[in-house]
Amino acid sequence: MTNKTQITEFIIIGFTSSKELQFFLFPFFFLAYLLTFTQHVKIIMVIHMDYHLHTPMYFFLVRLSFLDISYVTVTVPRMLGSFITGNKTISKLKTISFVGCFTQSYIYFLLGTTDYILFSVMSFDRYVAICNPLNYSTIMTWKRCIQLAIGCWVGGFLSISIPTYLKAQLPFCGPNEINHFFCDSVAVMKLACMDTSFIQLIDFFLFSLVLLGSIIFVVFTYTCIILAIVRIPSASRQKKAFSTCSSHFIIMSVSYGSSIFIYVTPTQGTFLDTNKTMSAVSTFLMPILNPFIFTLRNQNFSAAHLVNIFGSSIHLKSL
């Protein structure tokens, strides 16, 4: 930290200061967090216990579930705690140390960025499976899958580390109240005692590079997938391929759209309350939808889930 830094801790205002709204939102957010956590743990356990699901697609799905669990856990428990404390400005659940704040911010955006890169990897996996099925096992080897998974984390680390380091060097002289439910990058930089335009530009460039690069890659691969699907002679195989890929594309589109609105639009620092609401929607909506969209429409996973519940022997068809 620089010598100009005077603030040693921040106060997180939270999602809302309205007691009535806090009373209404607490059970909703708590149940949403509990549902997200249990559903993703179920996915990880089912895939781990059934060898039929030990394929590249489910390998990446497990990684996505781990990211989603971590993503909500790094922010939601503290937000729920702020609902409990209400409008008490000074409390252990509302205050966070300088280091703790930037650590939370770093982990949050690292997980989010890694998530987007993983979406690209998952779309590549579906591209190879549908457009080049004869060479799928040769291309998507376990070694290749592990390399791609590690690459997702490396990409997230490289794109987030430099901006986070630069933000941590900013002088914060006061006030120290963060108008958000976690240490959001935009909300924290609003408190700096100097011009942050250069850091915002770097942040914008790197995040846009990852996000837009991922979008372009996903759109390209799914365009190729759609063109390949329409050439499949079997109607049943067409339906199965469309069902799998459309669910993937829907969840990615919603995730990309919310992030573009919050962090890539030019007015990202102007409407903090709107960004706070969108951040809450993004934080809860995507991790909740992922298990349902990626698994409920998947016959293989549903059958494997029944096997683990009832202990019966069910034949699983490979994708």
Automatic annotation (TrEMBL):
It comes from the Eukaryota. It is found in: Cell membrane. Its main location: membrane. The keyword Transmembrane helix applies. It is a multi-pass membrane protein. Residues 39-294 form the G-protein coupled receptors family 1 profile domain. Gene3D superfamilies: Rhodopsin 7-helix transmembrane proteins. The chain crosses the membrane at residues 21-38, 58-81, 148-166, 204-230, 242-265, 277-296. It holds the Pfam family 7tm_4. PROSITE patterns: G_PROTEIN_RECEP_F1_2 (PS50262). InterPro entries: GPCR_Rhodpsn, GPCR_Rhodpsn_7TM, Olfact_rcpt, Olfact_rcpt_6C-like. This is G-protein coupled receptors family 1 profile domain-containing protein. It comes from Leptobrachium leishanense (Leishan spiny toad).
